[in-house]
Design goal:
Number of domains: 1
Structural class: mainly alpha
Order of helices and strands: HHHHHH
Helix content: over 70%
Oligomer: single chain
């Protein structure tokens, strides 16, 4: 795959979500590249052509969730950053069909939705941009820790 999970796990997850949506919207392009073909085949095998996420994406998110939980218990600065972001994430979750999603999944959902809004050339409010910045920083930090852990394995 073009995006490397080891290089940036957050970008890897967002990339997979984007390719899933792309293939749902344009199934006729499933064989445009070997990579799209492979993702399309996985989506068919896993029965997620209508919705949901690939096991690859779910597993990567689970790895990030484990790291997130570890850092919440071990890193006071990380815990403080999550606490500052929690009210906005709770508002976002309340507006979805999955209000019990994890905070990390809410961060990914936020960033993905903002990407879609930008593609539609829709305006992003300053409040949303601020939450986006906080969520991005959190995911960048987690991705960096993940990458460093992968390098030492």
């Amino acid at each position: 795959m073009l995006k490397s999970k080891k290089q940036n796990i957050a970008e890897y997850i967002l990339y997979l979500w984007q390719m899933e949506d792309y293939l749902r919207a344009f199934p006729e392009n499933a064989d445009a590249t070997p990579e799209l073909h492979e993702i399309n085949e996985m989506m068919h095998r896993e029965g997620i052509m209508e919705g949901g996420h690939l096991t690859l994406a779910q597993n990567a998110l689970a790895e990030m969730e484990d790291l997130h939980t570890q850092l919440l218990n071990e890193d006071a600065m990380y815990r403080a950053a999550v606490i500052r972001l929690t009210p906005q994430l709770n508002l976002l979750k309340a507006k979805t069909d999955r209000p019990t999603m994890s905070d990390l999944e809410a961060c990914f959902t936020l960033l993905y939705q903002i990407m879609l809004l930008r593609l539609q050339k829709r305006e992003i409010t300053p409040e949303t941009a601020s939450v986006q910045q906080q969520a991005t920083q959190l995911l960048q930090f987690l991705s960096k820790i993940y990458r460093n852990n992968e390098i030492t394995r």
